[in-house]
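We recall that each integer encodes one residue's backbone shape. We quote one record:
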Amino acid sequence: MARKVSARVELNLAALNQVQQALAKGLLALAESIGRDASSIVAVSADTWHIRDHWGAAAYVDGKKVGDVSADGSATAKPRAFRAPKGLSAIVGFDFPARFHEVGTVDTRAAPFLSPAAARGASRAGPTIAAGAKPFMPR
């Protein structure tokens, strides 16, 4: 009788292209810098004090997570709505209540903190990615 073939595939990080790994680490460094910048911008009040400490970032290569970082050091979970595309990608985000702080509600004015941090991050993306990738680049 034939053996059943497993459909589960595990990512072998050692087999990844070294340049892709390095660039993914560089993207993760960029996402981390945006998260830290945004957490320093957020206006803290009695209702939003916890937003500053609840952010996370992750980097993906071909849909597989290769690294993550968070404010409290815990592992980050991929948001349900995020579909990692082929190639390299990185995301950064805050816990659910931060959405209302960022875009506002019917009763509360918007106090953006993530979008300004992302704009500043975009202006320094090249050097940040290069600095984050340099230690992992093949010699």
Notes: The chain has one domain: 17-136.
